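Pipeline run #58 for the internal structure catalog. This entry was flagged by the ingest filter as a single-chain record with no existing model, so it goes straight to prediction. Upstream metadata was stripped on purpose; only the residue string is passed forward. Reviewer on rotation: M.T. Logging verbosity set to normal.
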Amino acid sequence: MNSCIILITTMMSIHQAKDLPFEIERFTVADRPAFLMLPEKSKRTAPQPWILYAPNLPGYPDKHEAWMHQKFLDAGVAVAGVDIGEAYGNPKGRITFSALHQELVNKRQFAPKPCLFGRSRGGLWVTSWAADNPEKVAGIIGIYPVFDFRTYPGITKAAPAYGLSPDELKARSKEFNPIEKVHLLARAKIPATLIHGDDDKVVPLKENSQAFLEAYQKEKQEGLVKLIILKGQGHNFFEGFFKSQEIVDFAISKAKNSSS
């Protein structure tokens, strides 16, 4: 699939991100806006370990993740993402993810296997891409990640992103729904660490992170998944989600080990 991708990179700019205490490089890949946060020069290496973040929509990443991203940068791990719009895991979005990967790996000496970071609906983005490209994934982290588009945003809202009617998407759920592809990640032995609240009404734990773990259990690979459940927490900005040392340590370890 990568051989068919055309990359168009425009003039780059570097400026301080709104609500974030560090500089972000803005550029364009496959006609979509992308961002890159680099460690200070003394901490950069070749190949450069990195984290592929989602969702990169207007306003994301945001100030709530500042602590995490600072930890990544301090450890010499870059963070990048591309805005694919409200794609919900659709094929077009996955192609753009591959374009970003190709840009960073082939042109900038980045490691071929990033750790993927899916926050909320970003889980749909990273899981769908990982299922298509398991050989390019060092690991996955998630903060109350969505894996089943039937729960969020729901079939009716997700259908236009796939160019289908709600009935058509429902009928083809096994083909397109990222949760239906998690078994492929288990078979590829991709490790993951997820954090989710047990009172999440927006992205229910059972149908998403718990279902992710169960897919690994069915493949007898449950030891590869760490699911951290925060009691009494929903889909919110509780610091426990965004200052999880366990999540950060896992991501840094996977990103750096894949580049050595």
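catalog note: The first strand starts at residue 13 and ends at 16.
catalog note: The first helix runs from residue 66 to 74.
status: ready for reviewer M.T.
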